[in-house]
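User: quick one
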Amino acid sequence: MTYIAKPKLHHPGLKPNALGFTHRDYEGSISTLCAGCGHDSISAALIQACYELNLEPYKVAKLSGIGCSSKTPDYFLGNAHGFNSVHGRMPSVLTGANLANRDLIYLGVSGDGDSASIGLGQFAHCVRRGVNMVYICENNGVYGLTKGQFSATADKGSRSKTAVNSDSPIDLVSLALVLGATFVARSFSGDKKQLVPILKAAIAHKGSAIIDVISPCVQFNNNPQSTKSYDFVREHNDAVNRLDVMIGREPITVDYAPGTVQLVEQHDGSRIALRKIDADYEPYDRLGAMTFLQKHAAKGQIVTGLLYVDPEAEDLHHHLNTVEQPLNSLEADVLCPGSAVLDKINASLR
Ligand SMILES: Cc1ncc(C[n+]2csc(CCOP(=O)(O)OP(=O)(O)O)c2C)c(N)n1
Ligand code: SF4
Ligand SMILES: [Mg+2]
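Assistant: Done. Structure below.
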């Protein structure tokens, strides 16, 4: 993979977070993507979110598939773990890593081709299993890396630089709701104010958190008739809410008028301050969210914000009753209890 290392020098005035890390400690190599690509803004939002959450970079694992979007884990959290897998196969690699070590924070970074075309089956199974992860689809409606063919998320009638799409689109957000995801959001790479708190809330969520981020491809799909262009998304963006996230026992610092904010407490004690923009939108109602999305899509609107959350979500480890310790820290006698125990288990299954 192509990358350019960043110089180690940085501005002495960079503000450290509670761990003493600066922004610079959450960066990666220099991006080789096209100037103006939405994916770079998502990397910047991830850097900001991890810095504000005071995450230790070595506690994060970044996994991706293949595509311009899947290259981006090289451009943030250079000190985290990372694995660049095969096209469309990130979810199964992430699931395996997560099962072997539940102590890391798993960031799955993918593209619309990677997730909705070749990787659709993999996407579906990791969502329905409730793998504890933040799954980000950097959605530009095209295969950017292979020069702009329409992907399965391209809207019918949408125009790229060279063609008009005649197929119906797959909406990953609606699909994630059907499949049982416990945190579902959509955002726009050009709206960092919305995206950073969504990422923070998703990282704090214990379950499968799916974020579809519309991320324009300036090279192949940013013309006025494309529904994934900067102009189209700005004009048709219908944000249903805005968030602020407080971690642990952090005091509530947001300054909203009384009664305008709902506090959502998550498993880990983090709290999301949810400010409703659309009074009718209810983010705890899976069925209502599905109908709302369909109605607005029919009007050509792109609904963004936190679309669904189950604060009581339980993840795959809980369902399978797995051991709490990472497998690499277990001693050989625990990993292999011996033939007498295995014989007993086999006998019980006969
Ligand atoms: C098994 C396999 N099939 C096809 C390809 C060719 N290929 C590489 S990236 C890509 C599409 C990437 O599109 P997307 O996931 O939307 O990422 P983007 O570049 O748009 O960010 C394709 C078809 C491949 N690398 N491997
Ligand atoms: S081809 Fe498109 S998706 Fe790839 S880096 Fe360039 S603008 Fe981004
Ligand atoms: Mg794409």
